[in-house]
Amino acid sequence: xxxxxxxxxxxxxxxxxxxxxxxxxxxxxxxxxxxxxxxxxxxxxxxxxxxxxxxxxxxxxxxxxxxxxxx
Length: 71
Known about the structure:
The chain has helices at 3-14, 33-39, 57-70, and strands spanning 20-22, 28-31. It is mainly alpha-helical.
């Protein structure tokens, strides 16, 4: 295994803030433990969800705009 990747993974997982990584299609690629805790999900359950499923109603409005821009 890559020690540098392990180092950054440890920082990601131990962060006091919720962190989420989203792909270009709007699906959650990674979510740390704090983010899963904040939203009531278990280990790995947020992966592949659409980010708009867990964001605020204000941000959900951007979904329509971004989908039109992408095609």
